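Late entry, zinc ion complex.
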Amino acid sequence: MRVLGIESSCDETGVAVYDSERGLLAHCLYSQVAMHAEYGGVVPELASRDHVRKLLPLLTECLDQASVEVTDINGVAFTSGPGLIGALLVGAATGRALAFALDCPAIAVHHMEGHLLAPMLEPDPPEFPFVALLVSGGHTMLVEVRALGEYQILGETLDDAAGEAFDKTAKLLGLGYPGGPALAKLAEQGDPDRFRFPRPMTDRPGLDFSFSGLKTHTRNLWLNIKTNEAAKAESVKADIAAGFQKAVTETLTIKCKRAMRETRANTLVVAGGVGANLSLRENLLQAGHQNDWKVSFPRLEFCTDNGAMIAFAGCQRLLAGQSEPLNIAARARWPLNELQGI
Ligand code: KG4
Ligand code: ZN
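Prediction complete; structure with ligand written out below:
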C-alpha cells in the first residue's frame, strides 16, 4: 500500500509518501518558523493561511521526489488532531478530498500517535510492547504501549509541557522563537552546576510531571541576576540555560527510569520535538545502558513535526482495514487514550 501523509497541526506543513513494501519514498517539510518569529510565537490564523498556501505545492514536490503519480497513491493519511483547529482543517480537508477524488480510503491520524510510532521509520525499529516518553511543545507524557492503539497513559504534565517550558524560558532569556533549539545551543557553552535548579516532582512517587515551577524558578533567578549583577547578565545566560536544560533532562530521565521499573518494559521510545535535545538523548541512552533497556529515537528531523510519521501511522491503520467516512475530521483536543486499537 502506498500512503500519502499530510501534517498541518501547528506551524509545519509536512507531506510524505510511505510504501508498506518499500518504506519511506519521500518526505518534504515547510516550516513557518520565520513567519511566526516576528510575533514571538505561533499566530494560529497566520498558520492556517500559510498551510493553505504551501500544502499543494509541497504535495506536488513530494510526489515528484518519490517518483510516483498521484494516481499511484492508494491511501491518504492526515493529522486530525490535537492541534490548532484552523491549521488541522487545511490538512484534513485536503487529505479527505484527495482520497475522495482518488477513490481510495482516508485515515485521520492522532498527531501523538504519529510521534510515538516515528522511531519505527528507522532501521532496527522498536517492537511492542514498550514505554514511550512523548515530549513535544504541547505534550509531556509517559505511555505504556502494548500494541498499535493500545495506550495506557502512565503519567503526564500537570501544567506546562517540556517543550513549552523550553520555549518560555528561552523567551525570558531573549533567545527568540522557537526557543528549544536556541536554548539547547546556548546551554552547550554554560556551566550546568553554577546555579541550583529543582527537579520537580521527583521526590514523591508517581509518573506525572510539572514544569511551570521550574520555569518560575528560572525567571526569578534571571530577574534577580539582571537587577543585581547587570554587568554579568550576558555571561550568566549560558549557565542558566545549561542549568535549566540539565534540570529538565534529569527530571525526565528519573521518571523514565521509574516507568521502566514499574512496567518491566525493556524498550523505551522517545519522541516529539524535545526528543531532538542532545543532552536528553545522551542521558536516556546512558540510563538504558546502565539498566539494560533499549532506547529508541527517531532521527533528529523526525522528532519534530513531519509528514513521514503521519504517513507511517496512517498506513498501519489502513492496512488493518480502518478508514474514515466522508466527513472531514479535525479535533483541537483529542485524548490519546480515546484511540482504538486495530
Ligand atoms: O513535536 P513538535 O515539533 O511540535 C509539537 O507537537 O509540539 O515539538 C516542538 C517543541 C518546541 O517546544 C521546541 O522548542 C522543542 O520541541 N524542541 C526542542 C529542541 N528541538 C525542538 N527542545 C529542546 N531541545 C531541542 N533541541
Ligand atoms: Zn508534534
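The first helix runs from residue 33 to 37. Will revisit in the morning.
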